[in-house]
Structures are given as structure tokens and as C-alpha cells.
Specification:
The chain has about 150 residues and is an alpha+beta fold. It contains 2 helices and 7 strands, in the order H-E-E-E-E-E-E-E-H. A 5-stranded antiparallel β-sheet has the order 3-2-5-6-7, with no helix packed on it. Strands 1-4 form a two-stranded antiparallel sheet.
């Protein structure tokens, strides 16, 4: 009988060791893909917009803020869009009356694009420059005309 108890006790110890070893080596790893956009906000002279207000508008509702935040001490802000909402996200950054807007297009066409609101093509820029120069010439000719 004593031998039988020793075998049972040895078997229980062995089962406990095997069971705890299985838990010790078991792992669970999961991964969520999140695209993070790092935004840097600076003044024209390169000074960072520290603690500037950040307002995010989703493609579904461009009038009401989807999220709000603040840039860090170096003018950086990280934006993680909701992957279930595709389209053009608008991020507005403001500090003391200064700031700007950036648009991030998150469509799944593989062409994620970022624009800062300056979307004039080269031909449009040329037309604007010609118009401004023509306006200056016209104004100069108006004041230089001979009076009769």
C-alpha cells in the first residue's frame, strides 16, 4: 500500500510540474496595425508651436471635431486615425492666432496623401503671377496717362 501511495504522489508531482511548465512557456501575442501620422508644427522662422491646440475633423463629419489634443514642447503631435473611417481627415493646429490646416487622405487605394492646404498647380501659380504683374502695369499706366 505504501508503494501505491508513493506512485500516486509521484504522479501528482509530475502532473503539477508538467502543467506549470506548460503555463510558463505559453505565450499570447497579438498585433493591431495602426498607422501613426507624426505632425510637426512650427512658425515660419522654425520656432516650434509649443502646446498648440489641435482639432481633428473626420471625413464623416467635417464640421464637428472628432478629437482634440495639444502639441508637445517641440511642436509635435501624433495622430492615429480610426481605420474604419476612410477619406480626408483635417487637422487644424492653432496657437495665439497663428496656425494652419493639414489634410490626410486615408483611402485604401494605397495612395495615402498629405497636403497642407497649398494645392495650387504650377499652371495656376503662373496665371496668378501674370495677373499680379499685369495689375501692377495697368495701375502704373493709369497714373502715368496724360491729362488733356
Amino acid at each position: 500500500m505504501r508503494k501505491f501511495k508513493n506512485h500516486i504522489l509521484s504522479l501528482l508531482v509530475l502532473l503539477l510540474l508538467i502543467n506549470s511548465t506548460a503555463y510558463a512557456h505559453g505565450t499570447k501575442i497579438s498585433c493591431d496595425e495602426k498607422k501613426v501620422y507624426s505632425i510637426k508644427a512650427t512658425f515660419d522662422d522654425g520656432t516650434e508651436l509649443k502646446n498648440a491646440q489641435v482639432i481633428i475633423f473626420s471625413p464623416k463629419d467635417p464640421k464637428n471635431p472628432w478629437g482634440k489634443g495639444v502639441t508637445d514642447d517641440t511642436g509635435n503631435y501624433e495622430f492615429v486615425p480610426d481605420t474604419s473611417i476612410e477619406g480626408k481627415w483635417t487637422i487644424q493646429i492653432r496657437q495665439a492666432g497663428h496656425g494652419g490646416v493639414i489634410n490626410i487622405d486615408t483611402t485604401t487605394k494605397g495612395n495615402n496623401s498629405i497636403s497642407n492646404g497649398n494645392n495650387m498647380s504650377t499652371s495656376t501659380k503662373i496665371i496668378v503671377v501674370i495677373s499680379v504683374v499685369w495689375g501692377f502695369i495697368g495701375t502704373a499706366l493709369f497714373f502715368l496717362r496724360r491729362k488733356k
